[in-house]
């Protein structure tokens, strides 16, 4: 772990936060699939479509985040993305009818995507000498989080019952 000592403290905190965020978001993909198929009574194809729609919204959210970063700066853009994402996750967790769930997932994707441009800018600010290393490490940490988060599936919840874990759907 001697390589870890070479990085600035603020950059390490950023990497840890990104890893936790990436792992958590990837952990939610299987849970959303279970919720859509078991609690909402939809097919796996419909669940896959909603998750694809959500991921596409993240791409548009990145563009929105870059635009907002240029207009209102990084801190406000980051706060907008984090607060809107947290509110939408809460809104989704109360149980929504199918069409509203799809819209909420799209908006959640926009909010999550909005977070990334200020994060990349922050990486360049906290480690000016890092150059491309900082962005490569962010890419590595995000992919590591996705791999681990998806691999976790629902194993930590052996007695998982989706009809008891989620609120009413209609």
Report on the architecture of this protein:
- The chain has one domain: Growth Hormone, Chain: A (Up-down Bundle).
- Helix 2 (44-72) packs antiparallel against helix 3 (74-93).
- The protein has helices at residues 9-39, 44-72, 74-93, 98-126, 132-152, 162-165.
- The termini are far apart.
- Mean pLDDT is 86; it is low at 162-166.
- With 170 residues, it is mainly α.
What's a quick, concise take on this entry?
It is a multi-pass membrane protein. The chain is mainly α and 170 residues long.
Topology:
Blueprint: H1 9-39, H2 44-72, H3 74-93, H4 98-126, H5 132-152, H6 162-165
Helix pairs in contact: 1-2, 1-5, 2-3, 2-4, 3-4
InterPro entries: MFS, MFS_dom, MFS_trans_sf, MFS_Transporters
Main location: membrane
Domain Major facilitator superfamily (MFS) profile: 10-170
Question: What is the CATH topology classification name?
Answer: Growth Hormone, Chain: A
Q: In terms of structural class, how would the helical and strand content be classed? A: mainly alpha
Mean pLDDT: 86
CATH architecture: Up-down Bundle
The DSSP helix count reads: 6
Largest sheet: none
Unreliable residue runs: 162-166
GO molecular function, one term: transmembrane transporter activity
Membrane topology: Multi-pass membrane protein
Protein name: MFS family permease
Organism: Neobacillus niacini
């Amino acid at each position: 772990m001697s390589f870890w000592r070479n990085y600035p403290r603020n950059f390490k905190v950023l990497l840890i936060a990104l890893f936790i965020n990436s792992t958590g978001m990837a952990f939610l993909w299987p849970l959303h699939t279970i919720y859509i198929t078991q609690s909402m009574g939809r097919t796996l194809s419909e669940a896959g479509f909603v998750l694809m729609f959500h991921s596409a919204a993240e791409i548009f959210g990145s563009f929105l985040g870059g635009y907002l970063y240029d207009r209102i700066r990084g801190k406000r853009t980051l706060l907008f993305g984090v607060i809107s994402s947290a509110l939408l996750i809460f809104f989704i967790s109360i149980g929504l009818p199918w069409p509203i769930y799809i819209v909420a997932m799209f908006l959640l994707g926009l909010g999550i995507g909005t977070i990334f441009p200020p994060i990349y800018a922050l990486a360049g600010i906290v480690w000016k000498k890092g150059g491309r290393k900082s962005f490569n490490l962010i890419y590595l940490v995000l992919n590591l989080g996705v791999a681990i988060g998806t691999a976790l599936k629902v194993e930590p919840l052996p007695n998982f019952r989706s009809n008891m874990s989620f609120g009413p759907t209609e």
